[in-house]
Amino acid sequence: MRPLPPLLALCSVSAAQAQQLPPLRFEHEEVTATVRFVSADRTGPLCGLYADRQASVGPGLYVNACTVKVGNTDTPTVIILPSPQSWRGSPEAYLRLMRHEIGHWSGWPGDHSNSGSVK
Length: 119
What we know:
Helix content: 25-40%
Order of helices and strands: EHEHHEEH
Structural class: alpha+beta
Shape: globular
Number of helices: 4
Distance between the termini: 30 Å
């Protein structure tokens, strides 16, 4: 598989943050997104390559997913998620994680505020 080009992380999400759902205006029934599924044990390190994760999720916390930009763009271009086969949490937690990252894809800012432009 060919490696991804350099990325800029918009948001990474720890296990606790993954339970936070985006404001309704950032949730959509239909979304066209590019998703890269990786082994759950690679999600955190892969997301960590693209920004200082210690600053955004705190020391000792594991990053479960991230939404990133590829290249020089203002909008997200890739969602990195653990593959369903390697996910160690409940199915409900995985769905919340997906909704969380799709919210970021749709414009929800990485600081989890209600600001931001809807995509």
